[in-house]
Specification:
It contains 13 helices and 8 strands. With 306 residues, it is an alpha/beta fold. Strands 1-8-7-6-5-4-3-2 form an 8-stranded parallel beta sheet.
């Protein structure tokens, strides 16, 4: 079933936090979540399975930083292809246990360096440029496509230039493979004024990525649903594709993220009641408990018309 057609019928449920869940497992590792797809596939499978069982319609691969530039810090840049293919295989295995349609989206996160800042500073010692970053994203996107993803999720965008590099790479992969897999685009804002870390307003980001024809455009991370509600209402005025929202479990405290599933679901239910969203899930601090509550609350809710 084509996810793009399903989006017109109902609000789809995305999974929740991956890093949060990994930390709860209490394992000793170097912090490279993506490498666990190779070294501890059982843990990643269990997390995906928990979200599928909680009612997620979409699960994202554990590949947020599985590109060569991000993996250089762990000296695993040469295993990026293997990492991404393994991640898709694990997610697909979990999705196939559902007995219903569960789509696997290939997660592509930001690089450790901001192209916007690099280009603005014009530092001659800095070697990263748009072409090199696009090449790194190309390797990741190609491996995700080879692994068999149902689409791509370019998430936690804080830099428009980095996002353009990722989307350029995905488009190149799709052209070479003759595919038209859907692409989700999700931004992370710096403050409640609705701007990226680099100061780019969401409207400018949306206009910039529209040429890549994303299936959805939305927000994740940064804030909880309470803070993101007015921003979602604002972008609904100009976004012409589906809108996704996967907030954190509130704002972090000294003890971490403490917002209860019922509270997170309250905010998303309000967005759904106002016909603002098409895809809803969670980011940092959210668990299968949050996703289960969101899925239950939004069952039967009408999606935003786009």
């Amino acid at each position: 079933m084509d996810i793009r057609e399903e989006l017109k019928k109902r609000i789809l449920i995305l999974d929740g936090g991956m890093g949060t869940f990994i930390q709860q497992k209490g394992i000793k590792y170097d912090g490279n979540n993506d490498a666990l797809c190779i070294t501890r596939p059982d843990i990643i499978y269990d997390i995906h399975k928990a979200y599928v069982d909680a009612g997620a319609d979409i699960i994202s691969t554990c590949t947020f930083g599985a590109n060569a530039i991000s993996q250089e810090g762990y000296n695993m840049q040469d295993r990026v292809g293997e990492m991404n293919r393994a991640a898709v295989s694990i997610a697909r295995k979990a999705a196939d246990t559902a007995g219903r349609n569960v789509w696997v989206m290939g997660s592509i996160g930001p690089s450790p360096k901001s192209l916007f800042i690099i280009e603005m500073m014009m530092d001659p010692a800095e070697t990263l440029n748009f072409d090199l970053l696009t090449r790194a994203y190309y390797t990741q996107a190609d491996a995700l496509a080879e692994g068999g993803v149902d689409g791509f999720l370019v998430e936690t965008i804080t830099d428009m230039r980095n996002a353009e590099a990722a989307l350029t790479a995905i488009r190149r992969v799709q052209q070479e493979r003759g595919t038209d897999l859907p692409v989700m685009v999700s931004a992370s804002i710096m403050n409640t004024s609705g701007c990226l870390m680099t100061g780019v307003p969401l409207r400018e980001l949306y206009d910039g990525v529209s040429e890549y024809r994303p299936m959805s455009f939305g927000l994740n991370c940064s804030f909880g649903g309470k803070e993101l509600y007015p921003i979602v209402k604002e972008i609904a005025e100009f976004v012409k594709c589906a809108i996704s929202i996967f907030p954190n479990a509130g704002l972090p405290t000294a003890r971490g993220y403490e917002e209860k599933p019922c509270d997170t679901a309250d905010y998303l239910e309000r967005m759904a009641a106002d016909r603002l969203i098409n895809i809803a899930g969670g980011c940092c601090g959210t668990t299968p408990g949050h996703i289960r509550e969101i899925a239950n609350r939004l069952q039967g809710a009408a999606p935003r018309i786009f």
